[in-house]
Amino acid sequence: MTLRSRFNKAMDRLVRDYTVSLPCDRRLYKYDIAGSIAHARMLGRQGIISTEEAEQIIEALLSIQQEIENGEFDFNDDLEDIHMNIEACLTERLGETGAKLHTARSRNDQVALDLRLFTKDAIYNTIAAIKGLQHALLELAEANKSVVMPGYTHLQKAQPILFAHHCLAYFEMFQRDLERFGEALERTDVLPLGSGALAGVPYPIDREFVARELNFSRISGNSLDAVSDRDFVLDYLSAASLAMMHISRLAEEIVLWTTAEFDFVELDDSFATGSSIMPQKKNPDVAELARARTGRTYGHLMAALTMLKALPLSYNRDLQEDKEGLFDTVDTLLATLEVFAAMLSGLRIKEDNTRRAAEENYTLATDVADYLVGKGIPFRQAHSIVGSLVRYAIGIGQSLRNIELSDYRRFSPVFDNDVKAITLETSVETRSSHGGTSPQQVERALAAARQKLDEKQG
Ligand code: ARG
Predict the structure, then answer these.
(1) Å from CA of 110 to ligand 1 middle
(2) Does the pLDDT value for residue 161 go beyond 60?
(3) Which residue in 1, 85, 286, 289 is deepest, having the highest Cβ count within 10 Å?
(4) Range list for CATH 1.20.200.10 in the chain
(5) Which CATH number fits domain 13-103: 3.40.50.10050, 3.40.47.10, 1.10.275.10, 3.30.70.3400?
């Protein structure tokens, strides 16, 4: 089955090697077989082939699947791809009956089908893995509910926050990723089979039946679009790029927090790496590699966008290139989500250090300004008064807490003893606007997050 009866010559070896897709697409074997089984069953039901022939084909396909899974299948690069390998084997076994499977079908709608089936599974697995990471974030937040740390802007200490609040920020990002994958699923969940090479097929096929057999919610509405559409691949790659981007931000914080300079967290020894020369090193390589692999995922997205750009309708061989980047992205994302969830579960928060860091460097200055607002001073004026106070404090090398009330009063007469009651705790507690870092708000957010995690997705 080399499809070369119209040619006078065999395919040049260079062409064969350049065009073969089997090493990559053999990974689709079970989707190819599932699709062929549904197709054969439909052909039998519709009287396009006999039901006995359909049954023989289905049985043979199942045994081919078994052989592939047992490592006994003889793959042949001369047959270009997994689809031809399976069909050729079927025909070798069943003769004319096997040769009937490809009735009312083209490899163009077949490859589109197989990749959609693969992508649907990938999305289900990705959603589960994102939930796994969200679960780990929630556990970490709940186990460290009272930990206070400095919040940053411009990577400069800004205001104290609860560590749990920081964890929940990532929970939100991953929740949006879940939504994106849910939407990607809807657009992937469309059956292209029955579109033929490009124009439809001249047989009385039942596409709705095939859709039901293969668990698709809808069937495609235009045969040209169905064989040339790879938007669902882009949907996966772009959702994956955003998810990897979120992971890389978390990765960066873990890298920072494990430095001696920050010293906020410690990785479990089993999740840290050493150095070949410096015996003392404890390195966060998992976080660094995740940070780097984000770029690989962006690259695959860009490659797929470029592959599709300016491609005329309908199928073009360019589309064969849709798989490698997708497979690598699925593998990268799933592995990264899994290792991150496990790494977070073993993360130890150095509460004393985060607290000390939250106290230092005048992080309560905004609270002092808010205090003045409470005494009737307009905020802009309060901001300016406290700015001068901080400048003075830096000059004498003192914290705001250690400055005498009489000195405070040189900046504003409304300062009173109660300014000394401003602490990390009051700072955090007063930030009780919806979505803020106060313990009550964080408690509410934790409960909401827990509930979202328990919701059934898709
Ligand atoms: N190996 C090809 C692919 O994966 C099969 C598509 C065949 N269609 C064609 N007209 N050559 O895209």
Answers:
(1) 9
(2) yes
(3) 85
(4) 108-205+217-356
(5) 1.10.275.10
Q: Report the residue among 19, 83, 107 best suited for mutation to probe ligand 1: largest number of ligand atoms under 8 A from its CB.
A: 107
Q: Tell me, yes or no, if 154 is annotated catalytic.
A: yes
Among the listed residues 5, 421, 351, 296, the one whose alpha carbon sits nearest the alpha carbon of residue 145? 351
Tell me, which fold does domain 358-454 have in CATH? Ribonucleotide Reductase Protein R1; domain 1 (1.10.40)
| Ligand 1 within 6 A of CB of 108 | yes
Q: DSSP label at 283?
A: B
What confidence tens digit (pLDDT) does each residue in 100-136 have? 999 999 999 999 999 999 999 999 999 999 999 999 9
**Model confidence at 442, in pLDDT bands (50, 70, 90)?**
very high
- Catalytic pick among 5, 154, 276, 406: 154
Cβ atoms of 180 and 241 closer than 8 Å: no
Q: Where in the chain is the domain with CATH 1.10.40.30?
A: 358-454
Where do the CATH 1.10.275.10 domains begin and end in the chain?
13-103
Helix (H) or strand (E) holding 228: helix 223-228
Pocket-testing residue among 19, 32, 81, 85, ligand 1, by greatest number of atoms within 8 A of Cβ: 81
Residue in this structure with the two tokens 């410096």, named with its chain if needed: 278
In this model, does residue 295 exceed pLDDT 80? Answer: yes
Q: Is 39 a catalytic residue?
A: no
User: Percent of the chain, pLDDT > 70?
Assistant: 99
**pLDDT of 457 above 90:** no
Q: Could you tell me the two tokens for 358?
A: 């939250």
Does the CB atom of residue 319 touch ligand 1 within 6 A? yes
Mean pLDDT calculated for residue range 395-411: 96
For 108-205+217-356, give the CATH class: mainly alpha
pLDDT digit string, tens, across residues 350-388: 999 999 999 999 999 999 999 999 999 999 999 999 999
pLDDT score of 458: 44
pLDDT digits (tens, 9 = 90+) for 34-86: 999 999 999 999 999 999 999 999 999 999 999 999 999 999 999 999 999 99
Residue with tokens 């400069």: 156
Stretch 437-446: mean pLDDT, rounded? Answer: 98
Distance CA 38, CA 138 (A): 42
3-state helix vs strand vs coil in the chain, percent to 5: 65, 5, 30
Give the whole-angstrom CA distance, residue 189 versus residue 211. Answer: 10
Burial class, 300, CB count within 10 angstroms (exposed 0-12 / middle 13-18 / buried 19+)? buried
